[in-house]
Amino acid sequence: MPLVSTPPEDELKRLYTLLTTVRQLDLAAVRWQRQGVIPGYAPMLGQEAAQVGSGCAVDPSRDFVFPTYREMGVAKALGVDMVEYMSTHKATWHGGLYNPAQTHLAPIQAVVAGSVLHAVGWAQGQVIKHADTNPGPDGFNIALTYFGDGASSQGDVHEAMNFAAIMKSPVIFFVQNNGWAISVPTDRQVAGGSVAARAAGYGMPAEQVDGNDVVAVLEATRRAVAHARAGNGPMLIEAMTYRLGPHSTSDDPGRYRTLAEEQSAQNADPLQRCERVLRERFGVTDHFFQAALADAEAEAEQVRAGVVALGPRPGHEMFEFVFQEMTPALAAQAASWREESEHA
Amino acid sequence: MLDATTLNPAQERGATVELSMQAALNLALAETLDEDPKALIFGEDVGRLGGVFRVTDGLQERFGATRVFDTPLAESGILGMSVGLAMAGFHPIPEVQFDGFAYPAVNQIICQIGRMNYRSRGTLPMPITLRVPSFGGIRAPEHHGESLEAMFAHVPGLKVVSPSDPQQAYHLLKYAAQRPDPVIFMEPKSRYWQKAQVNLHDGGTPEGARVARPGRHLTLIAWGAMVSRCLQVAELAEEDGIDVEVLDLRWLKPIDAEGLAASVAKTRRAVVVHEGPRTSGLGAEVAALVTEECFNTLKAPVERVTGFDVPYPSGDLEDEYLPGIDRILFGIQRVLEHRRG
Questions:
Q1: What's the ipTM?
Q2: At the N or C end, where does chain A have fewer CB atoms within 10 A?
C-alpha cells in the first residue's frame, strides 16, 4: 500500500527518521523490561505513524497535548526528553519527569479518557483568553487529546465531546483505534463500529484515516488543527491502526488472538510503507535507511543509559508536591518520616 | 445581588452588616471575580438562573457569560474541564449543584484534581475551589443531603472547609478562592437563609478552628450546620449549669490539631458532632487527634454524636437521623458522668 500523498523528499525523510527512532526506542523499552531495567512498559509497536503523524501537526510552543500512557511516539515528535519521558516506566515518578508546563505535554495519564476533559478545559481557556478578539489573526491555540477505542467507551469521552461541541472549543479528539482494549476487540467495544461516526451526533466533523500512513495522519491532523485554530470548534480524527505488541509487558496476547492475525496486521507496517515510497519515488538507497536505523539504535542506547542512571527521587518529594501550600499535618508526617528513616 | 461598592462606603471599619449566608457567599464570589481576573464560575444553572440556591445570582449579568457560565448537566465534565482551565492559568470556582452529584465526578476530583500538582511535580497547580451545597436538613430528595467531608478529607491533595454562618461563609470563601490548591467548599444548605451580622473588613484568621462559644466543662466540636445546633445545645445546657465550649472546626482538612488540643486541654471532655455516618466518619479522626494530644488530661473517652450507618433517609425520617438537640445532650451527659475504672 502506498501513502495517501507524497510530501517533499526532505519531509518524508524526516518523518521516516522519527518513525525509526520511536520504533527502535519502543523495541528497546520492551527489552529493558525483560532485562529488569524498568518494571513495565506499554508498547506502541504498530502505532508509530498515528503518533508521529499527529504529533508533528501541532506546535508545542503554543498548543497543548494530552497523552494517555502509550504516546511515546507523540512525546518524541514534540521534542520531549526521552529519558524524562521513560522515567514513568522506570517507576521514578508517575507523570514522568519532564516539565509539562514547559513541554506542553500533559503528565502521563493512567486513567483511560481521564485527560480528555482536561483538553476541553484547556482549549476553552484559550477561547476565554481571547474573548475580545476571537480568535485573532494567529487563530486559537489548540488542544490535542489522545485516547483509544477502549477509552471511547468511557462516559468522560461523551461529556468531553458534548462540552466541546457546545462551546466550540478548539480541541482535537485523536482516537488511535488499534483494534484492542487489552484483550477485547473493537467490535466488542465500539457500537456502530466506528468512533468517528459518533461525531455526527455532536455536530462535529470527523475523519477516519489510515493510521498506518504517516502522511495521511499528518495531513488529517493538520486539517483538524486548521479547523480548530480558525474558531470552528472541535474535530475528531480516528486513526485506524493495529497494536502489534501486547497491551503491556505483563500481557499475553496469545490468550486472545492468533499469530496469523498478528502476521496479517504486520503487512500494514507503517515504516515499511514509508520506506517503499522513499525508495520508489525518490530513489532513496540503503545507505539512508541503514544510517537512520543506526542513529535510532544509538539514541535508544543513550536513552537506556540515561534511564539506568536515574536514581530514585529523594523521599521528601513524596510530601513536597502534594500541595503548593503544605499542611501542618503533612509537614509533621514528613518530619517523622525523615527522623525514623534516618534511624533505620 | 449585593454589591460591595454600595455596601462598603456605608460601613465603618468594625461595623457589621446583616446578611444571609446565601448573600454573603454571593458577595464573596462577586468580589473574587472583581479582584481576580483569572477567576471563573461555572456549573449547572449558575449563569442565567443564578444557581438553584441563588448563590451566583446576578453574577453573569455583572461579569458576563464568558466568566460566569452554564455548563451541560454533567459533573465529571464540569470538574474535568476545571483541571484543563487550571492548567491554562485560570482559577476555576465550579459548582456541583448538590453533594450527592459530586459522586459522578469522583474520578476527576480524586484522581485528577487531587493529584495533578503531585503528578506534575508542582508545575501544574490546581487552584480550584469546588463549591458543594452540602449536608441535610431541608427534606430534599435522595442524594441531596450527603456529607462528603470524610471522603474528601481522606484524599491526598484536597483541602476541605465548611462555613457555619454568614461571617465564616464570606471570609472563608474569599480565602479559599485565593489558595493555589484545590479546596472543597461545603456550604451547609440548611443555613443558606439564616441572617447574621457580618463584619466584611475583619474576619479574623481564615485558618484553623474557631471558638464559637467559650466554655469550661466540655467541648462540642462541630462544623457546617451542626455548629448552630451545638450553640443551641450549649444554651440549654447552661440552664443546668453546664458550661459548654463550641469549637467550629471550619477546616476539615487540614484539621486544626492545635486548636482542638487547646480547647480540650482546657475542658478535658469532648463530644464531636457530625451529620455523616459514624463509621470512618470525620469524628473518628477528630477523636484520634484529641486522644493523641490530650490523653493525659481527658476525663472521658471522646464521644461521637453522628448520623447512623444508613443511607441518608427521606425527609420524614431526617430528624431521626441527624444529631438532634436531645442526642447531643445525651452525649454530653455520657462524658460528664463517665467514671474511670
A1: 0.96
A2: C
C-alpha cell at position A146: 489522545
Which residues, at least 6 apart from A9, have a Cβ–Cβ distance to it below 8 Å?
A278, A281, A282, A284
CB contact under 8 A, A125 and B159: no
- Say whether B72 and A97 touch across the interface (CB within 8 A): no
Is-contact B265 B250, C-beta < 8 A? no
Burial per residue of A113-129, b for 16 or more beta-carbon CB atoms within 10 angstroms, e otherwise: bbbbbbbbbbbbbbbbb
The C-alpha cell at A316 is 521528601
> Using an 8 Å Cβ cutoff, are A275 and A16 in contact?
yes
Rounded Cα distance between A62 and A200, Å, is: 29
- Residue B287 C-alpha cell reads as 477523636
Helix, strand and coil content of chain A, in percent to the nearest 5, comes to: 50, 10, 40
For residue B69, the cross-strand partners are B42
Ordered domains of chain B (ranges, CATH): 4-198 (3.40.50.970), 210-337 (3.40.50.920)
What architecture does CATH give domain A9-313?
3-Layer(aba) Sandwich (3.40)
Give the CA radius of gyration of chain B: 20
For chains A and B, count residue pairs whose Cβ atoms are closer than 8 Å: 142
- Pairing, β B39-43 against β B91-95: parallel
Is B9 a residue whose pLDDT tops 50? no
- Residue-range domain boundaries for chain A: 9-313, 314-344
pLDDT of residue A288 exceeding 60, the answer is: yes
Q: Each residue of A10-66: pLDDT tens digit?
A: 999 999 999 999 999 999 999 999 999 999 999 999 999 999 999 999 999 999 999
**Is the CB of A95 less than 8 angstroms away from the CB of B257?**
no
Residues of chain B with C-beta less than 8 angstroms from the C-beta of A317: 121
Among A247-256, A327-336, B325-334, the least confident range: A247-256
The residue to which cell 484568621 is assigned:
B205
